[in-house]
Amino acid sequence: VADMADTLTGDGPFTVFAPTDAAFEKLPEGTLETLTQPANMDRLKAILQYHVVSGKYMASDVMGMTSVETIGGEELQLTSENGSVMVDGAAVIQADIACTNGVIHAIDAVLMPE
């Protein structure tokens, strides 16, 4: 999904909720293969956009928020409890990974827009 690569290499800043390899392994068998077929590129793009937010939100920022809008125009629900942050039900397992145009938070599940 080339235009996503162009977006993410732009100036930003962006906040990316990035699923870990283990999160991808939790998907039903065949899901990734199906999503990467040419006929499903729009769905794949929507899923990728669902993990990216315009603006740089560090963990301390996210802790005080209840929702945030993705670059695809969808809303992610944020909750925090006992120092842990959940993004649409996925746990942030590593926060505040700095990058040149924003920040990455590793999550334990792949987020799926409805």
Q: What is the gist of this entry?
A:
The protein is α+β, with helices and mostly antiparallel strands and 114 residues long. The protein is 26% helix and 34% strand.
| Cα gyration radius (Å) | 14 Å
* Class computed from helices, strands and strand pairing: alpha+beta
Poorly predicted runs: none
- What's the total count of β strands? 7
Query: How many distinct helices?
Result: 5
Task: Give an overview of the whole structure.
The protein is α+β, with helices and mostly antiparallel strands. Helix content is 26%, strand content 34%. The chain is built from 5 helices and 7 strands, in the order H-E-H-H-H-E-H-E-E-E-E-E. The protein has helices at 2-8, 21-25, 31-35, 41-49, 59-62; strands at residues 14-19, 52-54, 67-69, 75-81, 84-87, 90-99, 102-107. The chain has a 7-stranded mixed beta sheet. Strand 3 (67-69) and strand 4 (75-81) form a beta hairpin. The longest helix has 9 residues, at 41-49. The model has no long low-confidence stretch (mean pLDDT 90).
